[in-house]
Amino acid sequence: ALKGRAVLYQQQGNFANALDDLTQIINRDYADGDAYARRGWLYYAWKDYVRAMDDFDKALLIDPNGTQAKL
Question: Is residue 70 very low, low, confident or very high in pLDDT (cuts 50, 70, 90)?
């Protein structure tokens, strides 16, 4: 439910709420590569490239074939 809401927030441009939901997902399940990748794209959009790359790296460690985190 949180991931769906985060995606909806992201589509609506409500990035702060999307970030909050994705962070909650990650705090509950450290193995959710998709959540790391989605949060990485939010950080990337805010030009926080260090955090973005950190999340992309974590996403790829969890799921090396995941397409969300590949640049």
Answer: low
53: Cβ contacts below 8 Å, ≥ 6 apart: 40
Q: Which residue has the tokens 């995941």?
A: 66
Confidence of residue 1 (pLDDT cuts 50, 70, 90): confident
20-57 burial code (b ≥16 CB/10 A, e <16): ebbeebbeeeeebbbbbbbbbbbbbeeeeeeebeebbe
Q: Are 55 and 37 in contact (CB under 8 A)?
A: yes
Is pLDDT at 67 greater than 90 in this prediction? no
The conformation of residue 67, written as its DSSP 8-state character, comes to: S
